[in-house]
Amino acid sequence: AQSVTQLDSHVSVSEGTPVLLRCNYSSSYSPSLFWYVQHPNKGLQLLLKYTSAATLVKGINGFEAEFKKSETSFHLTKPSAHMSDAAEYFCVVSVWNQGGKLIFGQGTELSVKP
Amino acid sequence: EAGVAQSPRYKIIEKRQSVAFWCNPISGHATLYWYQQILGQGPKLLIQFQNNGVVDDSQLPKDRFSAERLKGVDSTLKIQPAKLEDSAVYLCASSSLTGGAGGYTFGSGTRLTVV
């Protein structure tokens, strides 16, 4: 069965320092993986997606993620955090053999200190 | 293009009452999903439609939840009777292709509070 595990429920960084949000996945098939961001009282916004092309995926707002099959990981990174990055981040796997439904991780809350 | 429209944005009801949510997907999107997001958790799929047929409703509490997608466009999700644990944000998403290959677009959600 497909699943994702976000290894940190909360991450706190200082503005201008790197961001690392960790995600491990489990999938019987070649997975499609996504990172979504959710700001308070806002909808889900797609940051980036991996669909079996390049393993290093660049997304919006300076975020990127690297697909590592050997480690079953898809960690999200950003070189320099901004205050506006404070939000909830979800790692997501798509279950292609079940109509493409999305399975979400539990989420990681990112706090950015001035 | 217009996004996925959901209404209402907020709803407060008493337990045992009924409630309905409405979703209008992006024009031409064949696949429609309803997700439930309980506070502090990731969204969980309730039901998936392909046109007007149900693809997956394995996690829909069918004793109280129902959903339909007449004519393969708009969809409604109903809860009757509501319980306290149904308090959550209900998200609608649509996709242009089977399996989400065309990408997913989420609506802003309906926040339900059951008191």
Characterize the structure shown.
The complex is a heterodimer of chains A (114) and B (115). Chain A has no helices and twelve strands. Chain A is an all-beta fold and 114 residues long. In chain A, the strands form three sheets. In chain A, strands 2, 5, 6, 10, 11 and 12 form a six-stranded mixed beta sheet that branches. Chain A is globular. The mean pLDDT of chain A is 91. The model of chain B has no long low-confidence stretch (mean pLDDT 91). Chain B starts with a strand and ends with a strand. Helices cover 0% and strands 49% of the residues of chain B. Chain B is built from no helices and eleven strands. Chain B has strands spanning 5-7, 10-13, 19-24, 31-37, 44-50, 53-56, 65-68, 75-79, 88-95, 104-106, 110-114. In chain B, the strands form two sheets. In chain B, strands 2, 4, 5, 6, 9, 10 and 11 form a seven-stranded mixed beta sheet that branches. Chain B has a four-stranded antiparallel beta sheet with strand order 1-3-8-7, with no helix packed on it. Chain B is globular and about 35 Å long. Classes of the chains: A mainly beta (114), B mainly beta (115). The interface between A and B is medium-sized, with 21 and 26 residues.
**Which regions of chain B have little confidence, pLDDT < 50, spanning 5+ residues?**
none
- The coarse silhouette of chain A is globular
The residue-averaged pLDDT of chain B reads: 91
Question: What is the C-alpha radius of gyration of chain B, as a whole number of Å?
Answer: 13 Å
Strand fraction of chain A: over 45%
Order of helices and strands of chain A: EEEEEEEEEEEE
Order of helices and strands of chain B: EEEEEEEEEEE
Annotate the secondary structure layout.
The complex is a heterodimer of chains A (114) and B (115).
Chain A: E1 3-6, E2 10-14, E3 19-21, E4 23-26, E5 32-38, E6 44-50, E7 56-58, E8 64-68, E9 73-78, E10 87-95, E11 101-104, E12 108-113
Parallel strand pairs in A: 2-12
Antiparallel strand pairs in A: 1-4, 3-9, 5-6, 5-10, 7-8, 8-9, 10-11, 10-12
Chain B: E1 5-7, E2 10-13, E3 19-24, E4 31-37, E5 44-50, E6 53-56, E7 65-68, E8 75-79, E9 88-95, E10 104-106, E11 110-114
